[in-house]
Design a protein that fits this description.
The structure is a homodimer of 501-residue chains. Chain A has 501 residues and is mainly alpha-helical. Chain A is 64% helix and 3% strand. Chain A folds into two domains: 145 residues, no CATH class; 331 residues, Neurolysin, domain 3. In chain A, strand 2 and strand 3 form a beta hairpin. The longest helix of chain A is centred in the first third of the chain and has 29 residues. Chain A is globular and about 70 Å long. At the A-B interface, helix 1, helix 2, strand 1 and strand 3 of A face helix 1, helix 2 and strand 1 of B.
C-alpha cells in the first residue's frame, strides 16, 4: 500500500464509522424512534456530524489527497485506491468550500424547513413553507456558487452531485426527446384509458397479508435476509450501513393492492445494488452505488421492466390470487397485467404510471432550472407548477398539497435530484436492451428463475461500487454511453401494444 | 458556570454523543440488525468506542476533574455540576487504570466469549465455554486489582460498580438474613405447592393478542409512548438514548401467559425511572438511574409488589379474560392471583417466583466470591453450582444448560451484577413500606389510578438521576439507609397468607 494511503487510513476509518452512525440514526428516526426524541437526538447527530467534518476536512487530509491524486496519475495506486481517492476528493471538494458556520446554519435550517413543509402540506398552505423555501434556495445558490468552476452554472453543480455524467446540456436533449415522443403518446393513451379496468386494485386488502406477500416478493427477486431487513415507514426508502446490512422500508395502504407491491420491488432493486457490491470495497468510500441515476436504474428496472411484465407474474400470480381470492378470483393474469400497466395523467409523481412518470420529472427539472437562473420568484412557483401540469399532463392541481407541496426533496435543499429518476428509467431500458440480447429473459422469468438477471447486474454493474461512473459502466456493458433512445422506444413499444394504438 | 466546567463541556458533549451512538448500535443489534451485519458493524462500534476513550481519558480531562473536585469541595459548583463531576470521576477511575490495549483485547474477548457461551448453552457443553470463561475471569481479576484501593478485594471493586452503597460486608449480612428466613419458608411452601392450580397459564395464548395486552399493560402503568417504544428481542431489556427516548423489549411465549406480561411490567418499571429523570439532567452523566440496585428496585417493585397484587388486577382482570375467554372464563380473579404468586423451587433464575428468586442470587453471589478469592477452579464450577442448588432449593440441574450456563452475564465479564436483583427487591419492599404509610395504595390500585404511586417515585427517586446515591435516596424517603428487614417481612407476610401457613 502507498505510504500516503496508509497515512490516510485512520481518517477514512473514523469518518466511515461516524457516517455509519449517522446512517443508523437516520434509519432509526424514520422507523423506530419515539415522537419526542428528535429534538434531543438531533444534538447527538449534530456533534457526530461536526466530528465527521473535522475528521475529513483539514489540512492533513488536503495534503494527502493532493499527494495521492499525483500517485494515481502516475499509476502508483491500485484501482480500489484510485476509486476511494476519487470519492474522497469529491466529498472534500463539496464540503471544504462551505464555511463551517454556514454549513451548520444550513443544516439547522433544513430541519426547520422540513417541518414547515410537512405542516404546509398538511394544511394545504404554501405560505407556511414559502419563507423557509426562499432561505433554502439562497443557501443552495450560495453553496453552489462557492463550488462552481469558471463559467459553470450553479444548477449544473447540483445536478452533477447526483449524476456526474449528465449536466444541463445532456438533460435538455434527453428531456426534449421525451417531450416530443411521450407527450403525444400519452394523449393518445388517455383517450383509451377506459378500455382497461382497474377497480379490483382499490378493494380492501388485509395489511398483514400485504406484508407477507411483499416479503415474499422481495425474497423472490433476490433480497438476502441474512444481509438485510424490511421495516415500515411513512415513505419507502433504502438505506445501508454497509453491503452486509442493507435495509428497506415499505408503506401499506389498505385500499390499494399495487402500492406496497411495487414499492417493495423498487426498494429491492436498490437493495440488490448495495448488497452485491464487492467485499473488497466494504466500508470504503467506493463501497456504494456509483450515482443516484444508476441507483434509480436498478430500482426502476425491477419495478417497471421486470415487475410489470407478464413473464414475471406468470409463475407467481396464482400465489397472489390465493392470498386474496375474494378480490382476485375473477381477475385473469392478462387483466392484472393490463391493470398494473394502465396509464392516465395524474397529479402525484410517486403514484404515476410508467408512461406519464417522466413528465412529472421534466416539470420539476424545468422549475429547478428557472429557480437557479433567477427566472422565477418563490411566490409564483405554485402558479408555474400548475401551468406546467396543464401543459404536459393536461390536468391542473386543485390545491398546493397535491401540487408544488407534494414532494419532500426541496424542503431539505435537494435540488438536482429529481432528474435521477428519469435518468434511472432510461438507463434501465438501455441495460434491458443488452440483457435480452445475451439471455432468454422471458423464458427465465416464466420459469421463476431470476438468478441470471441478478448475476448479470451484479457482475456488470453492482460489484464495482463507485469504481466506474455511469458512462463507464454503460460503455462497458452496452458499448455506448447514456442513450435515451432505448427508453423512448421501450415506452412506445410497450404502450402501443398495450393500448393497441 | 465555573470556568473549568465550561472547559469540560465539549468533552462531556462529545462523549455523550459517542455513548448515545454506541447505545443505538446496541439497541439495533438486539432488535433489528440482519444476521450477517455484526462482524462488519463491530468495526464501527470499535472505532466509536476508541474515540469515546480518547475523548474522556486524557491529561486535559484529568486536570479538569482534579480542579473541579477541588471546586466541589469548596462548594463552588451547583448540585448538578457536582453530580456530573462525581460520575465523570467514577468513569475516569474505571477506565484510566486499564491499559488501552488490554481494554481492547478484553472487549474482543467478550464478543468471542459470548458467542462461545451461546454455543455451549445450545449444545449443553460447558467445556466449549470454559477456556473463554477462564480468560474472562483472569482479565476481570487483573482489571479489578488495578483499581482496588489498599486492602480492598477485587470482588468488592466489581460489586461497587453496580451498587456503590453495598459491599461484601453488607451483602453477607443481607444474604445471611435471607438464608435464615427464606430457605425454611420455601421448604414449608413447597410442601403445599399442590394447593395452587396453575395449569391455565400453560394453554395456548395467541401472540398478537399478547403483544396488544402487554402494550396496554405498559401504558396502564405509565409508559409514555411519546418518549418510548416497545420492540421484540431474544431477552427483554430496557435501553435509553436519553430521558425522552427510552426503549423496552419483550419476548412472547405461546404457551405461557405470564412470561411476557410480567416481563413488560418489569421493563416498564425500568423505563419509568429513566423517563422521569429531571430535564435539567438530560444528556448529562447524571441523567440516568443512580445504580443497578436502585434500577432493579423500580422494575421489581412494579413487577412483584404492584403487578402481582390483587388490587392491581381488580380493575383490569376482566380485560384479560375478554382477551382470552377460551382459556380464562372459568378462572376467577382469586384463582389467577394465587396462580401468579405460586412458588416452587425451580432451576432457572429468570423464571423463578418472587419467593425463591433471592436464593438464585445467593448461589451466584457465593460462587462469584469464591472465584475472585481463588477458592475454586473454573472446571469445578458446574459441580459447585449443582451442589448449591441442591442445598438452597432442594433440586439439582440435570444438565449445565439449565445450570451454570443459563445466564449470559459471566460471558460478558459482568461479575458483581447479580446481587443488584436481590438488592432491588429489598429496596422495593423498603420503599413500599413508606408508600403505604403516605397514601392509600390499595384503594388507588383498585380504582385503576396509578398516578400517585408514579408521582411519588418520580419526585422522590427518579427525578434525581445520579445526584443522590442509593443510601441517600433511601434515607431521604424512608428515614433509614438500606435495611433488608422490610424485604424479609414482606415475603413472610405475603407467603404465609397465600399458603395459609
Amino acid at each position: 500500500m502507498s505510504k500516503a494511503f496508509e497515512e490516510l487510513m485512520p481518517y477514512l476509518d473514523k469518518s466511515m464509522a461516524l457516517q455509519t452512525a449517522r446512517s443508523l440514526f437516520e434509519w432509526d428516526e424514520q422507523t423506530m424512534a419515539p415522537f419526542e426524541a428528535a429534538d434531543y437526538t438531533s444534538k447527538v447527530i449534530g456533534i457526530i456530524s461536526d466530528e465527521y467534518m473535522k475528521c475529513l476536512i483539514n489540512d492533513d487530509v488536503r495534503k494527502l489527497i493532493k499527494k495521492l491524486k499525483d500517485e494515481a496519475r502516475q499509476d502508483k495506486l491500485t484501482d480500489k485506491e484510485k476509486a476511494i481517492i476519487k470519492e474522497l476528493d469529491k466529498t472534500f471538494e463539496q464540503l471544504e468550500s462551505i464555511p463551517p458556520d454556514e454549513y451548520r446554519a444550513f443544516n439547522e435550517l433544513t430541519s426547520i424547513s422540513n417541518r414547515a413543509w410537512a405542516k404546509a402540506k398538511k394544511d394545504n398552505d404554501y405560505q407556511v413553507f414559502a419563507p423557509h423555501f426562499k432561505k433554502i434556495i439562497e443557501y443552495k445558490k450560495k453553496f453552489a456558487s462557492y463550488r462552481a468552476k469558471k463559467g459553470q452554472s450553479p444548477y449544473e453543480v447540483l445536478l452533477k452531485d447526483y449524476e456526474e455524467c449528465l449536466g444541463i446540456k445532456e438533460l435538455d436533449i434527453f428531456f426534449d426527446k421525451i417531450k416530443q415522443e411521450i407527450v403525444p403518446l400519452l394523449k393518445q393513451v388517455s383517450k383509451k384509458s377506459d378500455t382497461i379496468d382497474k377497480t379490483y386494485n382499490f378493494l380492501n386488502y388485509d395489511i398483514d397479508k400485504q406484508k407477507e406477500f411483499c416479503k415474499y416478493l422481495s425474497g423472490y427477486i433476490g433480497f438476502d435476509f441474512n444481509k438485510g431487513v424490511i421495516a415500515q415507514s411513512a415513505h419507502p426508502f433504502t438505506l445501508q450501513l454497509h453491503n452486509h446490512d442493507v435495509r428497506i422500508t415499505n408503506k401499506y395502504i389498505e385500499n390499494n393492492l399495487e402500492s406496497a407491491m411495487f414499492s417493495i420491488i423498487h426498494e429491492t432493486g436498490h437493495a440488490l445494488y448495495e448488497m452485491n457490491i464487492d467485499d473488497s470495497l466494504t466500508q470504503t468510500l467506493a463501497g456504494t452505488g456509483t450515482s443516484m441515476g444508476m441507483h434509480e436504474s436498478q430500482s426502476r428496472f425491477y419495478e417497471n421492466i421486470i415487475g410489470r411484465s407478464k413473464a414475471f407474474w406468470t409463475p407467481i400470480y396464482d400465489k397472489l390470487v390465493d392470498t386474496y381470492p375474494e378480490n382476485l378470483k375473477n381477475i385473469t393474469l392478462d387483466h392484472f397485467i393490463k391493470g398494473i400497466n394502465k396509464s392516465e395523467p395524474s397529479l402525484i409523481r410517486t403514484e404515476a404510471d410508467e408512461l406519464s412518470y417522466p413528465l412529472h420529472i421534466i416539470i420539476r427539472y424545468e422549475i429547478e432550472k428557472m429557480i437557479f437562473a433567477d427566472e422565477v420568484d418563490v411566490d409564483k412557483l405554485p402558479e408555474l407548477w400548475n401551468e406546467k401540469y396543464q401543459e404536459y399532463l393536461g390536468i391542473t392541481p386543485t390545491n398546493d398539497a397535491d401540487g408544488i407541496l407534494q414532494d419532500t426533496h426541496w424542503s431539505f435543499g435537494e435540488f438536482g435530484y429529481f432528474p435521477s429518476y428519469a435518468i434511472g428509467s432510461a438507463i434501465a431500458s438501455q441495460l434491458y436492451a443488452k440483457i435480452v440480447e445475451v439471455m432468454p429473459v422471458e423464458e427465465y422469468l416464466e420459469e421463476g428463475n431470476l438468478t441470471p438477471i441478478r448475476e448479470f447486474l451484479r457482475d456488470n454493474i453492482h460489484k464495482y461500487g463507485t469504481s466506474k461512473n455511469t458512462n463507464q459502466l454503460l460503455k462497458d456493458v452496452t458499448d455506448e454511453e447514456f442513450n435515451a433512445d432505448y427508453y423512448v422506444n421501450y415506452l412506445k413499444d410497450k404502450y402501443e401494444k398495450l393500448y393497441e394504438l
